[in-house]
Amino acid sequence: MELVNQPVVIDNGYGIIKAGFAGDSVPKCRFPNYVGRPKHVRVMAGAFEGDLLIGPKAEEHRGLLAIKYPMEHGIVTNWNDMERIWQYVYSKDQLQTFAEEPVPLTEAPLNPRRNREKSAEIFFETLNAPALFLSMQAVLKLFLLRKEGINFRTSSEFEIVRTIKERECYLSVNPSKDFDPDADKRIYRLSDGTQLDIGQARFLAPEVLFRPGLIREECEAMHEVLLFSIQKSDPDLRKILFQNIVLSGG
């Protein structure tokens, strides 16, 4: 039986945007959250419809396009492109019966109030959504983790680097041993045949989270931020918080 007023959930991730109807097991659409504009307009004249590409077509012709992400660190910085992407989600190519459904939309932690107001303006005035609910991605991931145990994947402009990171990087339990340049030689072959020596980078990249000084960053390490946050909480809750640490995102 078809549900009436079935909310449309939009996970507005920095790298990947996903959208679908609440209650469905999988999203109806999932594609990189970027737009692509032709690099050489004269050469490509007539090849594409419109001034930009979004979704699968942008992925297909990525090599011919100048790729732009409308978000930085989870915060929308280019509202024109973001609005075009949301309109594409609403299009007949993605979800067709969409206009009268309420929309839960994910947002990053510390999303500025003005950004929330702008999101509401677009969904109410342009996309004609009857209701909008904004919720932090991290909180929703905790609910989903408890229910399904799903592993979340992300992508970004540096897709090749992210692929290498996801396939090859690891967190070393003994950095001093792994730092030996002769201990671990590792060659990674790109799709075009290029070979990269990623030996020490495999553990040094994630090690930055715990030793920011490796890249000359003067900031707290991830475990220090976590410890500081828990210590600022109610003393009676600290033990429980230490026993319930969940790592999500990427």
Automatic annotation (TrEMBL):
It holds the Pfam family Actin. It comes from the Eukaryota. SMART domains: ACTIN. Belongs to the actin family. This is Actin-related protein 1.
